[in-house]
């Protein structure tokens, strides 16, 4: 067996697939550039470490169930001047995750709440944290079923485990008593343990109407907001802007139809997800 053959066998045996794949290039570069032994070793190890990180991020992104992957660089802050960029910069440091603090994104449809929630999740995943995305409606449906089947505690663990839980579209549909109780249990279980990133089209004052019961709404808000940062987005829908640019929204009356129209768009996205 030649040294190269022996090397390949060893790399395969140790599952060092990225080094194996780049072996020829690595050796050629080394004989051309004659790096120090340490530099050469670093280059070889980095080849494997980088590939592993990429694989890891890809898996975590799949596990996170994001409706789409969008990043901060794709977000036009100029379009949404009500957003305090300093606050966003602070959130991007991910300090809130280490403090198990929550992020609440509030605003009307189409202003970028889900986009920013997804971008924060992507940042967290790149930094090695686990994230999980679910709509409030799907969350409560799933946990409601678990409750009826007598396995709520076990099912709750799925939503308590990830460092970051994204709950999207809180408040589009009101919750019944069971839904509100379950939601309270989840928020309590994550309290000071893991971050929740929550998006809602309802202001805090309107939360009583989501839960039906103002007492449970207060109890939920109390825990949710104790350690939290609120991003209040007051602005125009980005979807509406794009449709207007395409000449699809010529009349002011038609702008009023933004709510049902964006509901349809959300439905479409859910089907393709
Ligand atoms: P919502 O506030 O209803 O959750 P989304 O985050 O889903 O809105 O935004 C609707 C669409 O518009 C998405 O495709 C999103 O990427 C895009 N979008 C919203 N705001 C911006 C922005 N300021 N810059 C770039 N894209 C944006
Ligand atoms: Mg949304």
Structural class: alpha/beta
- CA distance, first residue to last residue: 51 Å
Rg calc: 24 Å
What is the correct CATH architecture of the largest domain?
3-Layer(aba) Sandwich
Estimate the global geometry from the Cα principal axes.
Answer: elongated
**What would you give as the CATH superfamily of the largest domain?**
P-loop containing nucleotide triphosphate hydrolases
| Unique ligands | adenosine-5'-diphosphate, magnesium ion
Mean pLDDT, to the nearest integer, reads 90
Q: Would you report the number of β strands?
A: 5
The level 1 CATH classification of the largest domain is: Alpha Beta
What is the domain tally? 2
CATH topology (fold) name of the largest domain = Rossmann fold
Largest sheet: 5 strands, parallel
Keywords:
5-stranded parallel β-sheet, Rossmann fold, 5 strands, disordered C terminus, elongated, 2 domains, binds magnesium ion, binds adenosine-5'-diphosphate, 273 residues, alpha/beta
